[in-house]
């Protein structure tokens, strides 16, 4: 499946609006519904793709019991349930956090990739690591779901690692409410339980866990280490569900999936002058590239990449990608951030650029960013207590 698919693609943006509506505070339209509750805990497990979870559910007995047979359970309001969502394109953390936190697609919130062009400075910067020269509230000026929920009378508690508090991506996509820092997953679970226990008004707790994604990048998502990390997450979520009181809804979702890419299936722009020709700056990531071209070179870049890489990739001009809805409806101020040429991988391949790679980091085994089902499909799981 390519980014131009007509299937629903931005459903991750529905998760927080649906959770807010479940506690009586509808702040955004949502195509999803969840069971009504007094409070809600939303857990986002970075890298927990639906395809991976389905294939390796033997490591996750608690999550397995929430899943239903088939791709999409039509029952929205049961005490337990499972739906299959799409995170949208590109299937990567910075973009998905923008969709998740704002309830809007990338063309509206503007976080269109991992590394993107700041048109004002003509510099590519990382929307994960951020750049102190970029004001995150100007980069993404719309309100977040958390801000709107607070304005509507609810309470918001966000739980994650301490360095997330005030970070550029957090301020752009997930600002609003109170932040609580903890490192081990068990400590984050304890904070979530305590926040719900002390709640005096409708409360949303958001808990983030990123270790599964890290293990997938380093060891591969098909590795035993990935399965071991999934087991630990599943046990922690089971404990969280058991400790939450009656009337509290637990929701579990993800920001993207992952695939393993063999080293033999990677092209390196640093050593491929034909592919590098006409490209001024490289953004995105190895499976979802933004190519910022020399003036007048975009059409030649599209033709060269299509001829060289063939059906293994989907190569589009910016106008074509925008017109095909890859990023959802695109605001005029977002358009210059998108590459002159946009590339998404179809097969288990990647295009890297060792000229700009960090030398202290080994090559990633697990990758994401493209529009394959393994990368774009994510679960929406939930449970409540009477």
Notable characteristics:
2 domains; about 375 residues; Alkaline Phosphatase, subunit A; alpha/beta; Gyrase A, domain 2; 7-stranded mixed beta sheet; 4-stranded antiparallel beta sheet
What does this protein structure show overall?
- By secondary structure, this protein is of the alpha/beta class.
- The protein folds into 2 domains: 264 residues, Alkaline Phosphatase, subunit A; 104 residues, Gyrase A, domain 2 (2-Layer Sandwich).
- Helices cover 31% and strands 22% of the residues.
- The chain is built from 15 helices and 17 strands.
- The strands form 5 sheets. Strands 2-17-8-1-7-5-6 form a 7-stranded mixed sheet, with helices on both faces.
- The longest helix has 20 residues.
């Amino acid at each position: 499946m390519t980014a131009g698919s007509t299937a629903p693609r931005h459903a991750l943006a529905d998760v927080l609006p649906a959770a807010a509506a479940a506690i009586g505070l509808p702040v955004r339209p949502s195509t999803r519904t969840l069971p009504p509750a007094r409070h809600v805990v939303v857990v986002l497990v970075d890298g927990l793709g639906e395809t991976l979870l389905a294939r390796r559910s033997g490591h996750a007995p608690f999550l397995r019991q929430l899943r239903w047979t088939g791709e999409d359970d039509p029952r929205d309001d049961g005490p337990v349930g499972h739906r299959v969502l799409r995170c949208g394109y590109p299937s990567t953390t910075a973009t998905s956090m923008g969709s998740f936190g704002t309830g809007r697609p990338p063309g509206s919130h503007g976080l269109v990739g991992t590394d993107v062009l700041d048109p004002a400075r003509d510099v590519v910067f990382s929307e994960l690591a951020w750049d102190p020269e970029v004001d995150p509230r100007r980069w993404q000026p719309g309100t977040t779901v958390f801000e709107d929920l607070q304005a509507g009378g609810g309470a918001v508690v966000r739980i994650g690692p301490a360095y997330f508090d005030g970070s550029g991506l957090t301020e752009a996509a997930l600002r609003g409410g109170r932040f609580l820092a903890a490192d081990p997953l068990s400590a984050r679970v304890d904070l979530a339980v305590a926040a719900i226990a002390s709640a005096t008004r409708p409360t949303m707790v958001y808990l983030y866990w990123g270790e599964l994604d890290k293990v997938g990048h380093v060891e591969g998502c098909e590795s035993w280490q990935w399965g071991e990390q999934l087991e630990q997450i599943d046990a922690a979520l089971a404990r969280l569900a058991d400790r939450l009181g009656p009337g509290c809804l637990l929701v579990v979702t993800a920001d993207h999936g992952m695939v393993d890419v063999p080293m033999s299936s990677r092209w390196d722009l640093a050593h491929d002058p034909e592919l590098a020709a006409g490209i001024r700056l490289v953004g995105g990531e190895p499976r979802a590239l933004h190519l910022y071209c020399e003036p007048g070179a975009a059409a030649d870049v599209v033709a060269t990449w299509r001829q060289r890489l063939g059906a293994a990739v989907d190569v589009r001009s910016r106008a074509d990608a925008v017109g095909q809805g890859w990023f959802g409806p695109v605001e005029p101020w977002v358009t210059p951030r998108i590459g002159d040429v946009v590339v998404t991988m179809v097969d288990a391949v990647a295009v890297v650029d060792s000229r700009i790679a960090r030398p202290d980091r080994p090559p990633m085994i697990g990758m994401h960013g493209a529009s394959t089902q393994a990368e774009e499909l994510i679960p929406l799981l939930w449970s409540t207590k009477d």
